[in-house]
Amino acid sequence: xxxxxxxxxADGIALMHVLAALADEEPAVGTAGAGTAGADTAxxxxxxxxxxxxxxxxLLTSLRDVADLxxxxxxxxxxxxxxxxxxxxxxxxxxxxARLGVLLKDDPPTALKQPLSxxxxxxxxxxxxxxxxxxxxxxxxxxxxxxxxxxxxGALGRYLDAQGERTGGVTIRAAVPVNLRPAGSGAxxxxxxxxxxxxxxxxxxRHPLQRxxxxxxxxQALKGSPQALVTFGxxxxxxxxxxxxxxxxxxxFSAKASLVASNxxxxxxxxxxxxxxxxxxxxxxxxxxxxxxxxxMFTYGxxxxxxxxxxxxxxxxxxxxxxxxxxxxxxxxxxxxxxxxSIVD
Length: 345
Prior knowledge:
Layout: H1 12-22, H2 59-78, H3 83-103, E1 120-124, E2 128-129, H4 130-140, H5 144-162, E3 172-179, E4 194-201, H6 208-223, H7 227-238, H8 243-254, E5 259-265, E6 272-273, E7 276-277, E8 293-300, E9 303-311, H9 318-337
């Protein structure tokens, strides 16, 4: 069963709860009904959620936020002892806005940064065993997310090399959606509640272990950054602006990354729909602006499923990239089994 739904309705986490509400953890007996037993099993892995456009509160809400900010400024001017923590937070946010606007350069030109044809192609492969991914991460002191992102970076590097590009020493970025819902927030509502983190993908590093630790360092640096919160606010504001302003703003953001990479954790056990077991689940992440490639990583049960959607001008045969992802993960596993010895390329 294939479902296509506009991202304005909900992000990946909310849609997983919708799916869980429609499905059952056990085959339905007698009258068919929507079970909710699996609703609590959908959660974000390492704070990742599905990608797409941010929440759009409207111009009135944006103006109200500005008014609140002015009110807080006056309050802190009259009560300076309360201002220190807020000042530090404001400076952090202001610094992140400056970094996004000035220091974060546009992504380097590769085959992933070309004019789009508007025709998308999709592919997926055999899932990875979640326990194997966990074990590799545990042995190397990294998270599941680190392992998956590093594997993707290696696969993209090898794919681009095969297309005749020179990727040695090259780093591109992925726009990675980050869940901004408070922990333990209870029942989820539809809508979008995520920001974007621009994650470095060192596609020019061939050694799997070196590349993994490079990704791990970048991810650790982002954990203490307000970047996702800042992009959430900016995307919310952009959504309320007229097209003449909105389109250049989207182009500005999309120039900072070459693809969208979304990691979403789904139900921890197999679900049933209309009495039939759901053997496999995957999603394709939408892109925006000039970005024409999306890579999804979806955990269902004890498996991790990669899915690729790409403009055919960028990646004519996305199945080739999916195959390389599997091979790149196998290289990392082999490296762990060899105790960190070098692998002949």
